[in-house]
């Protein structure tokens, strides 16, 4: 089995602004940086996913500073960058082909937001047959109102998204476990 590919989803400057909303897991960026450093040290594949909005008013519209990668998570020249304009990193991006051509059969997914781009990308990865891990403390969600009108905390939204994934689509692990597994690989 080959080393999993680290897939970093939407870690853009726009996600770090107060306009993005109330969130959980304030340590997520630090954990993502730790994972990225470990993947780079191992010479393992890394994919950076960036959301490019079709709406000119979005924080993630082309030309806006919000679309840029956060400083600590800038891709290196040899790391693959995927640009998407829907939550799922596999839709209209050729990500699956890029992974298959390189013989990648396992993914470690981190980033934002747990209940949107992370969840939709992990669902597709699982459905496509990739062995998928979502790192719970290297992802985060934002508070939101549910369909019944009940305000849900970012922790509740995050936990429900992970619950949606853990039975059929992905294993849910923490940063320490994933780092230990990478070192043992």
Automatic annotation (TrEMBL):
**Gene3D superfamilies reported for this sequence:** Isochorismatase-like
Q: Which CDD domains match?
A: nicotinamidase_related (cd01014)
Q: Which UniProt keywords apply?
A: Hydrolase
| EC number(s) on file | 3.-.-.-
Q: Which SUPFAM superfamilies match?
A: Isochorismatase-like hydrolases (SSF52499)
Query: What class does this enzyme belong to in the EC scheme?
Result: hydrolase
Q: Which residues form the Isochorismatase-like domain?
A: 5-166
Q: What is this protein called?
A: Cysteine hydrolase family protein
Query: Lineage, please?
Result: Bacteria, Pseudomonadati, Pseudomonadota, Betaproteobacteria, Burkholderiales
